[in-house]
Task: structure prediction
Amino acid sequence: MIHSLLIANRGEIACRIIRTARAMGVRTIAVHSEADAQALHVREADEAVAIGPAPARESYLVPERILAAARASGADAIHPGYGFLSENADFAQRVIDAGLIWVGPNPDSIRAMGLKDAAKARMIAAGVPVTPGYLGEDQSPDRLAAEAAAIGYPVLIKAVAGGGGKGMRQVDDAAAFADALASCRREAAASFGDDRVLIEKYILSPRHIEVQVFGDRHGHVVHLFERDCSLQRRHQKVIEEAPAPGMDPATRAAVCDAAVRAARAVDYVGAGTIEFIADASEGLDARRIWFMEMNTRLQVEHPVTEAITGQDLVEWQLRVAAGEPLPCTQDQLAIHGHAIEARLYAEDPARGFLPSIGTLEAFDLGEDVRVDTGVEQGSVISPFYDPMIAKLIAHGDTREEARERLADALDEAIVWPVRSNAGFLVEALDHPDFVAGRVDTGLIAREGEALMPPAQPSEEALAAAAAALAGPAFAPGFRLNAPARREGMFLLDGAPVAIDFADEPAADQREDTAVLISEGGQTWALAPYRAAGGAAGGAADGAILAPMPGRVIAVEVAAGATVTRGQKLLTLEAMKMEHSLTAPFDGTLAELNVATGAQVTEGTLLARIEAE
Result:
């Protein structure tokens, strides 16, 4: 049995692992960077060890620091979570060589499935169906182009060592192949140090189906059924569910049996996921479902499998790592109901899904669904790591019950002032195609604007909030044969807005008063207009502050220029993305404090607008 577990990760997955370990009576040790010193996973663990500066490459990705923390804390096992070092075979071997228990598959299994071409060749040998394509050693442009033509366009060029959507290009015709190949190779070399590629047939109506598998050291391998992870944005999963909509028993049996064969082919131990791609143009059929790759770790979306099977997969991991047999045989596992998971990210859909950082001054995800998170009210969302705030998981007797439960929870979510994608998730869950189970990996890209949440609250929500803020400063209006009304100026997230509202003030107005409006998964702050100004500054008084640490890469206007609301003033590069800063209202650029190339910290006063 494992007695003391070091978790080589952070955030929600670290908290998730701590929860199960505590229930099993296992002592937990967290590791943390300087940025995470006060993080929730640090406070929930029995012990915590600092492992370095904020950047992951100097802390969470440094094997020596993790191993030193294990030695210092007396840990007898290491759980890598997902991401970071979880699929690093060399690190797994070093853990084992140090005399510690590695909560994960054997290093040889990780290596066997780590390269897409070798993994596919192994799957072919094991009788697992694979996507038609080219896996050959000849990487010359001419040979690759010839193979693409033989497969038939459209094709997908994929980096052999790729993952996370990097090193991947769709090519629709022969004329575009050479440029796409060169681009893919450059990205693969930069991201993985390996520019080799493989060619696959591109599926026009693809569904992403994956099967949870589990093996132990006694030769047992089982599956825990399938998940559908088709709703994706830029190759990143957004919403996952189990079981897959439209999966009939015969197709399920064929796909899940293939997944077990795949795991057996590499003597797999622990939790793993076999990923398949399905051509869903005529529904799910085992003859049109092919192996893509294997993830040799616990998946982000494992809670939906837990929900439909009633099993704790982290407990399974710990027991298997300690040498115990699997807790269940295949015939003891069954599907109960339906579960859907949504990934809540700190990002702003209205700004191209740019990451959002800051302190969670208001944070409430309710209690009606399972919430896996590594933050709480008062936590800081930093620019150093993945922007996922939480996972919300709903379970119901039917898919529709689970969908409605999850949509309702997200609709009522409060996340402020950090922006989130909750409103976008609500729109996705309510989209007619998702409701009907007609989901493929291109849905979000096709629908685009239709999935964007409203830019501001409804008139009813604004009027109610305005009434709550109103006081004698507002002169009542008069309408024939209508209740007394008022019209006043307010600040909605710092931008002036005129609101017509009922003459029923709910509170006296105060200079520091603000009301949070929560609607459709989005949260706004409404404040009296006269609250603008003061030394602290903000969008309300024209102060343009850096929303995160970064570098100014463009200045669009000069000091003294006349600007209009929404006009781009400058561009900040942060978290490897560009963030445009715009004028909050019409006026004059009275102050400009930075030039192109300047490095700034969060909260730096970059510029100030004076109203006309």
Remarks:
- The radius of gyration is 26 Å.
- Residues 472-482, 508-512, 531-539 have pLDDT under 50 and may be disordered.
- DSSP finds 16 helices and 36 strands in the chain.
